[in-house]
Specification:
Radius of gyration: 16 Å
Distance between the termini: 36 Å
Shape: globular
Number of strands: 7
Number of domains: 1
Structural class: alpha+beta
Largest sheet: 7 strands, antiparallel
Number of helices: 9
Order of helices and strands: HHHHEEHEHEHEEHHE
Length: 202
């Protein structure tokens, strides 16, 4: 069983960065996982000052080292799609060997577009995840709530910070708001990377 580590720091200035240069889920996930400012990530995801507004797997692989991080290891499609109701447990199972290290996760919302790769790629969403227990370590909590924290740009409430929230809170709030109406209600992990920061943020 994993201990409950201190809650990671939130990502500050998300709304300002969204307005100024279009920072969205991809840059926010990198900033959260590496615990660096969004200003540091901007240079890593941009061509000059221009961020194209979306990130695929090659973009993440290039941006993480540029933001002062390192990909320790990565997984492509580690598990089959599951009903979004079980998304927090999907994350915990996929990350079972990471022992709490930060992850950048790219999920796909499943639907009729899955048969067309270019279309399916537009239904992706990125966030950061840390595996740990956020409830008392009982069988009930482990089974019903699932271990871990999620930092997602959509966790924003009334502040300019994207906080880390328990994975089951993310699944029942932020994730449900993101599910496309024409989708089938399932989510899949398209790519996931265990990362670590190797350089101090600028």
């Amino acid at each position: 069983m994993l201990d409950r580590p201190q809650t990671p720091p939130p990502v500050d200035g998300v709304l300002a960065a969204l307005r100024e240069w279009g920072a969205n889920c991809g840059p926010t996930a990198i900033a959260a996982a590496l615990e660096v400012p969004l200003a540091t990530v901007r240079g890593a995801v941009s061509n000059g000052d221009t961020f194209k507004g979306y990130m695929g797997v090659p973009d993440f692989k290039a941006a993480i080292p540029r933001a002062g991080g390192r990909i320790v290891r990565s997984w492509s499609k580690p598990l089959e799609p599951v009903d979004a109701f079980y998304a927090d447990l999907l994350l915990a199972n996929a990350a079972a060997e990471t022992n709490g290290e930060p992850l950048v996760v790219l999920i796909r919302f499943c639907g009729p577009w899955d048969a067309i790769p270019r279309a399916a790629a537009t239904y992706r969403h990125a966030f950061a995840y840390r595996r740990c227990f956020v409830e008392p370590r009982t069988c009930w909590a482990q089974a019903s709530h699932g271990p871990g924290w999620v930092c997602d740009i959509n966790n924003l409430a009334t502040t300019d910070c994207a906080p880390w929230v328990p994975a089951y809170v993310w699944r029942t709030q932020s994730l449900l708001d993101l599910l496309p109406k024409r989708g089938d209600g399932n989510v899949a992990i398209d790519w996931m990377a265990q990362v670590e920061r190797i350089e101090a943020p600028a």
